[in-house]
Amino acid sequence: MTVREQWVAFLTLIRREMIRILRIWGQTLMPPAITMTLYFLIFGTLIGSRIGTIHGFTYMQYITPGLVMMSVIVNSYGNVTSSFFGAKFGRYVEEMLVSPMPPRVILAGYVGGAMLRGLMVGVIVLAISLFFTSLHVVSAWVTISSVVLTTAIFSLAGFINAMFARKFDDIALVPTFVLTPLTYLGGVFYSIDQLPEPWRAISHANPILYMVSAFRDGMLGIGDIALGPAYAVMLVLLIALGITAERLLHYGRGLRS
Amino acid sequence: MPPIPALDLRALRKTYPNGVEALKGIDLRVEAGDLFALLGPNGAGKSTLIGILASLVNSTGGEARVFDVSVQHDRSRAMALLGVVPQEINLNQFERPFDICVNEAGFYGIPRQIARGRAEKYLTELRLWDKAFGPARNLSGGMKRRLMIARAMMNEPRVLILDEPTAGVDIEIRRAMWQFVQAINRGGVTVILTTHYLEEAENLCRNVAIIDHGRIIEHTSVRALLAKLDVETFVLDLAPPHAPPVLPHVEGMQLRRVDDDTLEVELPKGRDLNALFAALSAAGILVRSMRTKANRLEELFLRLTGSGAEVAA
Hints:
The complex is a heterodimer of chains A (257) and B (313). The mean pLDDT of chain A is 91. Chain A has one domain. Chain A is an all-alpha fold and 257 residues long. Chain A is globular. In chain A, strands 1-2 form a two-stranded antiparallel ribbon. Chain A has helices at 3-23, 25-28, 30-51, 59-89, 93-97, 103-129, 140-164, 168-184, 199-203, 207-220, 227-251, and strands spanning 53-54, 57-58. Chain B has two domains: 7-226, P-loop containing nucleotide triphosphate hydrolases (Rossmann fold, 3-Layer(aba) Sandwich), CATH 3.40.50.300; 230-295, Alpha-L RNA-binding motif (Alpha-Beta Plaits), CATH 3.30.70. Helix content of chain B is 32%, strand content 28%. Chain B has ten helices and 14 strands. A six-stranded mixed beta sheet of chain B has the order 6-7-8-3-9-10, sandwiched between helices. A four-stranded antiparallel beta sheet of chain B has the order 2-1-4-5. In chain B, helix 3 packs parallel to helix 5.
């Protein structure tokens, strides 16, 4: 395929993903909006008013970047797992496998679609937060780059999950037993400075901490981790997951016999 | 220089991880422009062979070339030459037929404007245009099969592979699909089909290969294959009274009673029927009509695969 043909194929996948996201908006865009409104209401307004300030910011201001990132992570991951596993389950993944599309284009299309959903949800949650607090953006570059990297990382992770999945349970296990605990323990609701040892040290093994911290740094100018190590972790994860996903697709893990 | 074949399989092998040897070194050549039938009983290796051509199954030996492009070594270029209609329905049931076709073209790098025109053309030719903008899940089984053919045509392939395209389809739609397949074949597309309806292969295809236990046991023209039949079977519909319990003996023929009003007679090809009718008349049996038993190819197929004999490669 020429580069131009690959570009057409990529745009076809993106368009198909976008149509899917918008067609089932009640499952893709609405739930995070409702859930995050409740988080803002309960944790931000009712409980947050009794917590006081963290690093000089109200609790509502402090958790807003965390809640945005939590939504972005869950939705990027969930979009690609359900969409790609659905294609496997319904066997229409074969439409792509028998086409001349190289594996990297298929991967880019699904990851791109999942990133778009993650970013759309991020914008929705950010818009909802405006009803509860004012928006701070200290560095637009750090804010945008960290959220884009995060959504790419979790889209790739979700793709790998979908490649290995054989039944619907397999795409529910990782979000329930890995992703949710890591997100809740990744500095969304608190600063790791508040944790006693050894939990504070252990928290450094949680990759989500680096992403949330970088994003919060971009918005509020404060973070648990310095930007250098945070970007290093994100880039390493991005490259490692990208290579893994592309290789799995190239060899047709779970797709070709 | 000999013409480049549409399909050239050389010592193609597939052994699955569980040790099952699905293909045991297939050599097969399908000429460009042919309408070719690949026949074989269940488990013979047909689907594995098509899976390898569609790059859904990795071969463990040998090579498959489509118009001299290797499926194994130049997958992308080979796939651009192929259209594949699988046996199982593999449509996104939530999408509209029009979008399914346009997206398929997109996967081949065909710009959207061209794809929309082709989608209209093939959906119309396959009598699906009036269903083009409803959900695919609302289509009947036969419509879904036709949609899969329309989808496979979106890249205007040089080789169209149809894996049991008319399975479970009623006779009217089956004939419409045959007409479509014949029309695109006349237009220059090489068509390779597998089918359980041997009548389909007999009526539609020029050449045929029979695969059994992972090996090609016959590869010839349909006409040459039928010529190998050294016996013919006729069905005789009787007028009252019913056929007697004991049938007359006719030298060199086997007369069988099917029911009270029907007999079957098997006789060497080219043998005259006068002796048969004389014997029947003498026994007071009146023949109202006579017809050739349908599906002669089926008879030969069962003989070839049933015996497991390797007739030719």
